[in-house]
Specification:
Elements lengths: L3 H12 L3 H17 L3 H24 L15 E4 L12 H15 L1 H5 L8 E5 L6 H12 L3 E4 L1 H4 L6 H15 L3 E4 L3 H4 L1 H6 L3 H15 L5 E6 L7 H4 L4 E4 L5 H11 L10 H8 L4 H17 L7 H15 L1
Helix pairs in contact: 1-2, 2-3, 8-11, 13-15, 14-16, 15-16
């Protein structure tokens, strides 16, 4: 019969409407049933999964997918996508999760707030070390609200010509008003840091001034998300312009263990020595831990097993640490 982890994975994938993951877990249950001698049950499960895949494919073909593709000069400034990720896919501290849920709740029920002269949190500043989940959070907000995610390409935005960057910024903010979405300014410290302005008191300062003016003037229905790895370097004037400033950090041991359990839910981790694994994970980011899980999972799959030994996971973590040094 299905293991406890498989049952949890089935329920989670159903809640998140993740058909591919649901079918993958169901096939794991079928394989487990076959190994225990329940051949008829295994065959029935496989048949049901095949039927579900067929129906799911037909449903997807009948459902048109809205496409919001930047055109003209905007095509050099914005990259559009439709993330499927949800907050439930992320391993977060409870306080951080509650703050993100509050943002979603305010956005979804903004009509109630506006009827009382209040506005939802729309302008967000995310700070924290690389790989701590800032970009993934923007994707999750996009997925939860079923809005397109537009990532601003800073290399196309910043030019050497006076005034040209400000004009491009205006194009982006005009797009926010015309096409509702989640607009992500990643690596925002490139234009918002005091250090950048110290190195170039000309164009960078003008860019920041233009950004602050446009941010203040924005009355669109879009979410504006700025993410930075160097919150300490940002100009202090920026912080009061945002509706919310959210800090991210490296995972604690409890959070790291939860992440491992989530990412490896389809594998047998009963023999994992968590004390040694968590020691090896110390100081690594969420992204590093996720990649290590994927590397260990790939090796197990190619070795023909569903078991994740401690040494395999620790080796993957050490490899990630070596890459980051």
């Amino acid at each position: 019969m299905a293991t406890a982890e498989q049952i949890k994975a089935l329920i989670k994938s159903y809640i998140e409407d993740d058909d591919a993951r649901f079918c993958a877990v169901a096939m794991q249950v079928a394989a487990h049933a076959a190994r225990q001698g329940h051949g008829r049950l295994a065959d029935e499960l496989r048949s049901l999964v095949d039927e579900a895949k067929t129906r799911s494919g037909t449903k997807r073909r009948k459902t048109p997918v809205p496409i919001a593709t930047p055109r003209g000069e905007l095509s050099e400034l914005l990259v559009a996508s439709y993330p499927q990720i949800r907050l439930a896919d992320m391993v977060l501290t409870d306080p951080l999760r509650q703050r993100l849920i509050r943002i979603l709740k305010e956005y979804r029920q903004q009509h109630k707030l506006r009827s009382h002269g209040l506005s939802p949190r729309r302008k967000l500043l995310l700070t924290g070390p690389p790989g701590s989940g800032k970009t993934m959070t923007a994707s999750a907000l996009s997925g939860e609200l079923k809005l397109p995610l537009f990532v601003i390409q800073l290399d196309g935005l910043i030019t050497k010509f006076m005034g040209e960057t400000a004009a491009k910024l205006r194009l982006i903010f005009d797009a926010m008003d015309q096409t509702t979405g989640v607009y992500l300014f990643d690596e925002f410290d490139a234009i918002g840091s005091e250090r950048a302005m110290a190195n170039d008191v000309g164009e960078v300062r003008r860019i920041l001034t233009s950004y602050l003016q446009l941010l203040d003037q924005d009355t669109s229905n879009s979410l504006i998300v700025a993410a930075t790895n160097h919150g300490d370097f940002l100009d202090r004037a920026l912080f009061r312009r945002f509706d919310d400033v959210i800090g991210f950090s490296l995972p604690t041991q409890d959070l790291a263990r939860e992440l491992f359990k989530s990412r490896l839910s389809l594998f047998n981790t009963e023999q994992v020595g968590w004390t040694q694994v968590l020691e090896a994970a110390e100081g690594l980011s969420h992204a590093d831990l996720t990649r290590a899980c994927e590397d260990a999972a790939k090796e197990s799959i190619l070795s023909g097993t569903t078991e994740i030994p401690s040494e395999r996971l620790i080796a993957a973590l050490n490899e990630r640490r070596a890459i980051m040094q």
